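Model: You mentioned two targets. I'll fold them one after the other.
Researcher: Yes, keep them separate.
Model: Target one:
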Amino acid sequence: MIKAIDFFCGAGGLTRGLLNAGISVLAGVDNDERLQQTYTHNNAPSRFIASDINDIEIAMLREELGILRQDLTLYAACTPCQPFSTLNRQKGKDKRKILLLDFAKIVEKCPPDFILVENVPGLNNAYGREIYKEFLSVLRRCGFSEAAGLLDAKSFGVPQTRKRFILLASRHGTISLPIPQTYANQMSTVRACIEKYPAIADGEAPKAHPNHVARKLQPHHKRIVAAIPKNGGSRRDVADTSILLPCLSICLYF
């Protein structure tokens, strides 16, 4: 079994996915201790370690977690995505960009067998290009081969278009990205995922179904919803544009 450490673990979404895939995630590391309760609740027995990545002594952490020299190990790192987003107003000057290189230092000190990095598409271009090149040079010095590219969540059964940059690296020969499992005419839909739940009106939150909640709508919102055709309509189909906000009416022409 592969033993893993999830750096920049946040509330533990990636940890949960790795656990579901049969990988033993021993700990998640994040500097925001407010996330500890959520992380441990959803990912026990994986431990939450509240620490800045620069304060981690990786050799000591591996020993503390019971990782032996012969164990297959994986380091996962989903560094903050905002620095690499084209929507970032700091124009590429966001200081969090170097967190990927801080992770690279961990890799250099105690290389794992495998690496998983996930981020927005801008990681390997736009504002992240130079950081990414430097990160790759570290991996190659450590004997890793890598495979990287964009993957879309909808190609793996998720009812959402969500493209992410994924890098996988291995010190055991070549590695490849997973092959999409579904095709355009077989994509999972939101309807397919939630139609088993009872219909609810706006503002309702049945206790029998956690997270099955509908936000309360204002009267003018209800008029807009009623004017949009079901099963695929949008505000572009609203004939009476007077019920739309001025900004939305303008957007219809672009």
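Model: Target two:
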Amino acid sequence: MTAYPDRIDLNAVPRASRHVVIVGGGFGGLACAIELGNAPDIVVTVIDRRNHNLFQPLLYQVATAALSPADIAEPIRKTLARFKNINMIMAEVAGIDPSSCTVSLSDGDLLSYDQLVIATGSDYNYFGHDDWRQFAPGLKSIHEARQIRHRLLLAFEKAERAKSELEKQALLTSIVIGGGPTGVEMAGAISELGRFMISRDFRKLHPDNLRVILIEAGPRLLAAFPEHLSAYARSYLEKMGVEVRTGRRVTNIREDGAEIEGEFVPTGSVIWGAGVKASPAHSWLGIPGIAGGRIPVDDHLRVLGFDDIYAIGDTSALNGADGKLLPGLAQVAKQQGAYLGKSLRSGHALPGFTFKNRGNTAVIGRNAAVFDFGKWTMKGRAAWLLWALVHVYLLINFEKRLLVAIQWVGRYLTRQRGARIIDETAEETEASCHSAARDGCRL
């Protein structure tokens, strides 16, 4: 059997016959770990470069001051503490050696495994323009959400003291790039946040000063949804005052604005949501990634060509019943994680994984959302209520569900945003990040 590194404490559990290492503590990784919890013959080690699990579908609400980061995140150790056979390591993986069954960490340590699960998720794809990231953060981490919130709120404060109408207009202009669910949700939330704050809290600004531009390179918003839901989303956003531009591309992004096919638009904030790519995990295995860097797997989620390595969630490439690649959604990752955990726990292969579609959704604004269940669809207030119920249910535990539900009810009744705090040191932190590491400073 594998000789485990001394620094991992195995004294609290019986000697294991197998060591399962899970790289990534997101939806899929945690679902897999929980299924393996307290298995008598298995020790599990979860590796993640962050110490917390994050409910990414609600990150846009952190970015627009509706929720605080702690409302949608929880320490991984706390989540897994009840399972005595699970260890957690906060570290970054640098590589994998399948021949020796070891994972190498960025600090030089090696971790042996009997079975390895890769659940490293995805990142935003800047399509060869990674230098844009510093000016147009996406929504994949708490740091990025706080960065967007800081820029949005600070732009309003600066606009209140603007010396000219041109300066005021630029500061109150926000550009959201990408017409998928993230872009649609961000554009609607920024419009709601700005118009309420201007009407209630600022004396020198007017709601007409606010400008939110949503850019989508394709012919319509929410391309993965039926056309009538896409049309509904566009119509609702435009009623909210969002300027929707489809069939347009951003050709450059600077600190002071973005260029949209030759037209430069000065702006106070730019938010990126134009596409995602898988983590570079395929390079650890020395194999080419497909469809944006994903790792090809069989229907048991085993990486093709490797007996004891598995990949799940956004990292994996598996076709669904319709012959199309399964989408990078939380429900896919959770179902794959739970399936793989059960399979590894049983010690023998279960029938091949089958994805059960629970529906795809996007919220547009107050009392407006869309749901696509495949055979039928839903939109409007009913979809918005269902969206809220589903997202509260999917939060990590009862405490988070109760806290978020109470805040949403209060926000609905008062329209107030409770997380409108500007960190006075954030500008200094961003400046040091830009000069030290243009490709991403993580706090």
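Researcher: Noted. Anything on target two?
Model: The CA atoms of residues 45 and 203 lie 55 Å apart.
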